[in-house]
């Protein structure tokens, strides 16, 4: 029998991101900017940006997962790395699709910590093994998640896209 998975549809993502925004608003946190962790966090950040009326969105590219349950030893920031001047003294909401091990979120949160007024994390899913306990979580699960943006294979496969040492 195949392992049971979480299946997030586009429609459910719409509801989930709206509920996540309500959680942030109910907490009284009013971010100055949303820092998205690419790629899955781009969708979350965009939805939160609209729902929380935050137009200042930034992107941080982090390579960690290389396939289904396959990852590098440590997450790596890819260029362009955000300029810390843009983050200085800001209230930052870090947005991602899932806190799995927590390593990616920790890297990004630690990158921000010395420069910002406040940094908090919002994710659609948080897994029990995550070393980062996010302030805002739509759902907790220990299952593998099928996200609507990554469930289908790429239209074009690009050779050599893996991070080179």
Give an overview of the whole structure.
By secondary structure, this protein is an alpha/beta fold. It has one domain (7-144): Rossmann fold (3-Layer(aba) Sandwich). It has helices at residues 10-26, 40-51, 103-113; strands at 6-7, 33-38, 57-67, 70-78, 91-99, 118-126, 136-140, 145-146. The strands form 2 sheets. It has a 6-stranded mixed beta sheet with strand order 4-3-2-5-6-7. Helix 3 links the parallel strand 5 (91-99) and strand 6. The radius of gyration is 16 Å and the shape is globular. The mean pLDDT is 88.
Helices and strands, with pairings:
Blueprint (H helix, E strand, L loop, with lengths): L5 E2 L2 H17 L6 E6 L1 H12 L5 E11 L2 E9 L12 E9 L3 H11 L4 E9 L9 E5 L4 E2 L19
Parallel strand pairs: 1-8, 2-3, 2-5, 5-6, 6-7
Antiparallel strand pairs: 3-4
Helix pairs in contact: 1-2
Protein name: Phosphoribosyltransferase domain-containing protein
Keywords: Glycosyltransferase, Transferase
GO molecular function, one term: glycosyltransferase activity
Write a brief caption for the model.
The protein is of the alpha/beta class and 165 residues long.
